[in-house]
Amino acid sequence: MDFLNFKAITQTGNFKTPSENENIEYKEASWKLPKSFWETVSSFANTLGGIIVLGIAEDKSKHEFSITGVDNVEDIETQIFNDNNNISCLNRPVIQNNDVQISVFQNKTIIQVIIHPEPFNTRPITAFGKAYIRTGDGDRVTTKEQLKYFTVESQNEIDTHLLPSTYTIEDLDAENIKEYRKIIDKKGIISTNSQLSDQEFLYSICVFRKDRLSNSNEYHLTDGGLLFFGKYISITDRFPRFQLDYQQYNSDNSTNWNDRVSAGDMNYPTLNIFSFYNLVLTKIEANVPDPFIQGSDLSRTSYHNDLIIAAKEALVNCLMHSYYDGMVGVKIVDRPSYFEFTNPGTMRVSKESFLRGQYSSIRNT
C-alpha cells in the first residue's frame, strides 16, 4: 500500500477520484484529530487495511473532495502517536513511524496514515472499547457474530480444540471410520494394525487428543474429528449452522437444480465432511465434459483430466479452509460452463501474499 500522490491527482486542489472506498478515508482535521479517526483505524486494521488522509473536506452534494489542509500539524502528529499507544484508545498500537507521511500541496499540509491489516490472531483492534470493520466507504461496529469470528480465529484450530467428555465415539459414523481405514491402508499412508480398535485407531490419527491441561489424561474428541467423521445431529450440537450443499444444474441459466447433496436432507441424514467429499467428488468427475478437440497438428487433445484435478483441489480447499462457526455454509454449484465454490471465512493472508505464494496460514490444519 502506497501513499497517495496528490500532485498527480489534482491541479486545483479539488478532485472526485479516488473517492472514499473500502481502502481510502478522507477526514478534515484543521486543529484537532477527530475521534472518528480511531474508528477508521480499527475498521481498516480488522479488514483489508487502508489509508487515512487528514486535511480533506467532502462536498456531498457535488460528490467532490477538496484539500483544506491541516493547520496544527505537530500537535496532531503527536496526538496520533500518543493515542496509538494509549490502551484506552486502541487496545494495541498499530501505527509505526514510517506509516505516517506529511506533505505539502499548494501551501496546504496533508497528513497520510497507512493502516495495515492485522494478522488474524491479533484481531480485533478496538477503538474506545468497540471493534469496527470496513464495509464500502464506511466504518461499522462489529456484530456479535463478527466478534465471535475474531475470537475463534485467534484461538486453537479445530483439530486441536477439545470437546467436552460428553462427546464420544458414538457421535461418529462407524461406517465412515471403517471406509477411511480401508483407504489409508490401501494407500500405505499410515500402517494400521488390524488388531487396533476403532477407538485406538482414532487416537493414533488425533481425532481424539489427550487433555494435557488436566490430571485425568483423558482423550477428548476434537472439533475437527467431529466435523470429519461425525453424525449430522452431533455436528450441529457443536456447529448449529453446519451446512454442506452441492447443487447440479442442467444449464447455466437454470433456477432449479437437477441433482443435490445437502447435509441434513432426508436423503443424506448423516452427512459429514468425509462422506460429502466422497459423494460430491464422484458427481463432479461425472459432470466434467470431454468434448472432441483437435490440435493444430491434427491430433486429439483434451482438458478433461486437468479440469477434474483442478475441481478436486477446489473441493478439498473449500472444505479444508472453511470457517465452520460461520453464519453460512459451504456451497458448491455445478453448471455446464463452470463450477462455483463458496465457503464462510476470509483468507488469513493478504491477497498479495496469496497470489505470490510467499506465505501460508491454514485455518484448519
What does this structure look like?
The strands form six sheets. A four-stranded mixed sheet has the order 2-3-7-6. Strands 14-13-17-18 form a four-stranded mixed sheet, covered by helices on one side. Strands 1-5-4 form a three-stranded antiparallel sheet, with no helix packed on it. The protein has eleven helices and 18 strands. It has 365 residues and is of the alpha+beta class. The mean pLDDT is 90. The chain is globular and about 80 Å long. The chain has helices at 6-9, 36-46, 73-84, 144-153, 174-187, 198-204, 223-229, 232-238, 273-287, 304-320, 351-356; strands at residues 14-15, 24-27, 50-54, 56-59, 64-67, 100-105, 108-115, 126-127, 130-135, 138-141, 208-210, 219-221, 244-248, 259-262, 293-294, 300-301, 330-335, 338-342. Helix 9 (273-287) packs antiparallel against helix 10 (304-320).
Give structural attributes.
18 strands; 30% helix; globular; alpha+beta; 365 residues; 4-stranded mixed beta sheet; 11 helices
Mean pLDDT: 90
Count, helices: 11
Secondary-structure element order, as H and E?
HEEHEEEHEEEEEHHHEEHHEEHEEHEEH
Strand share of the residues? 15-25%
Structural class: alpha+beta
Biggest beta-sheet profile: 4 strands, mixed
Distance between the termini: 30 Å
What is the helix content?
25-40%
If you compute it from the alpha carbons, what radius of gyration comes out, rounded to the nearest whole angstrom?
Answer: 27 Å
Low-confidence stretches: none
How many extended strands?
18
Largest beta sheet: what is the strand line-up?
Answer: 2-3-7-6
Mass-distribution shape: globular
